[in-house]
């Protein structure tokens, strides 16, 4: 994670600083000026990405001190101190925007996950688990996956390398045959990797079960179709619901007997939370 964070942060800093650096701070702030700052949460949220926030200041200037009074996964109140910083004012100002961009988006994803989990938990006794997807901000996959966990939800596969998920375009690429796609996957995929396949109707679901899928993704099915799918599967495969899932639908899905629900909105549409850096 350390090398990954450094690549992401350095790229972000390069975008901001170019070849000339922070020309405003260089022009306005004396080189020897020291100061303090506070990272302030200005609304209710679940924190995430704090290590990346601190690392941004460290990469700009190792002399900057960042001391957290809260940690990832904790819920803030509106107007609550998250961290205290101390160091050269030029460095604090130079790192400010990049550090905030990262932590605001991480907190947004964690908060969205937490809100979804809270809705799901309103249904007692459900076994349904909320999963993320690969629909993450470019370059932020690792941070996004951690944010989802900080919010109390679960990770789907990390990338294309750690799970077989046969989607509609894969099926189309082998002539539209679910059975052929599954047979090729079982023959060629790494031995211990689970094989999941996407279906859109009960006929495809039956074919997927008959040809050895481990998990079947029910894509864009309504509640009645999902009930029928659960009855047809009868516990022979794990079932995942996907396709434009909103948080408001979760309590209904929790009662249908499926195993997983994947929500791209947790990472691709989460609002950046309101955190600010206040120079004392």
Automatic annotation (TrEMBL):
Record EC number: 2.4.2.19
Residues engaged in binding substrate: 97, 133-135, 157, 167, 198, 219, 242-244, 263-265
Cellular component terms per the entry's GO annotation: cytoplasm
Secretion signal, residue range per the UniProt entry: none
Broad class of enzyme this protein falls into: transferase
Full protein name: Probable nicotinate-nucleotide pyrophosphorylase [carboxylating]
Membership in a protein family: Belongs to the NadC/ModD family.
Record gene name: nadC
Record-annotated Quinolinate phosphoribosyl transferase N-terminal domain positions: 22-106
Keyword terms of this UniProt record: Glycosyltransferase, Pyridine nucleotide biosynthesis, Transferase
PANTHER family, per database record: NICOTINATE-NUCLEOTIDE PYROPHOSPHORYLASE [CARBOXYLATING]
Keyword Calcium assigned: no
Record-linked InterPro entries: Aldolase_TIM, NadC, NadC/ModD, Nicotinate_pribotase-like_C, Quinolinate_PRibosylTase_N_sf, Quinolinate_PRibosylTrfase_C, Quinolinate_PRibosylTrfase_N
GO molecular function: nicotinate-nucleotide diphosphorylase (carboxylating) activity
Higher taxonomy: Bacteria, Pseudomonadati, Myxococcota, Myxococcia, Myxococcales
Catalytic activity: nicotinate beta-D-ribonucleotide + CO2 + diphosphate = quinolinate + 5-phospho-alpha-D-ribose 1-diphosphate + 2 H(+)
Subunit structure: Hexamer formed by 3 homodimers.
GO biological process terms held by the UniProt record: NAD+ biosynthetic process; quinolinate catabolic process
């Amino acid at each position: 994670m350390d090398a990954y964070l450094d690549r992401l942060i350095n790229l972000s800093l390069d975008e901001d600083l170019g070849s000339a650096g922070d020309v405003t701070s260089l022009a306005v702030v004396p080189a020897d000026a020291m100061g303090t700052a506070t990272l302030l949460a200005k609304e209710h949220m679940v924190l995430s990405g704090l290590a990346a926030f601190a690392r941004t200041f460290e990469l700009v200037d190792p002399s900057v001190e960042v001391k957290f009074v809260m940690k990832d996964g904790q819920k803030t109140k509106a107007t609550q101190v998250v961290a205290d910083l101390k160091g050269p004012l030029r460095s604090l100002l130079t790192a400010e925007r990049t550090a905030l961009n990262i932590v605001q988006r991480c907190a947004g994803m964690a908060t969205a996950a937490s809100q979804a989990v809270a809705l799901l938990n309103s249904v007692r006794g459900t076994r349904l688990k909320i999963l993320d997807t690969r629909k993450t901000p470019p370059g932020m996959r690792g941070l996004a996956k951690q944010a989802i966990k900080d919010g109390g939800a679960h990770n789907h596969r990390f990338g294309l390398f750690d799970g077989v998920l046969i989607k509609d375009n894969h099926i189309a690429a082998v002539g539209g045959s679910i059975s052929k796609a599954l047979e090729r996957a079982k023959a060629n995929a790494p031995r211990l990797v689970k094989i999941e396949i996407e279906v859109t109707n009960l006929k495809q679901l039956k074919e997927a079960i008959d040809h050895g899928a481990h998990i079947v993704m029910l894509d864009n099915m309504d509640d009645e179709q999902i009930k029928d799918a659960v009855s047809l599967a009868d516990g022979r495969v794990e079932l995942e619901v996907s396709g434009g899932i909103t948080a408001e639908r979760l309590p209904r899905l929790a009662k249908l007997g499926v195993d997983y629900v994947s929500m791209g909105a947790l990472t691709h549409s989460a609002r950046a939370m309101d955190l600010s850096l206040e120079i004392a």
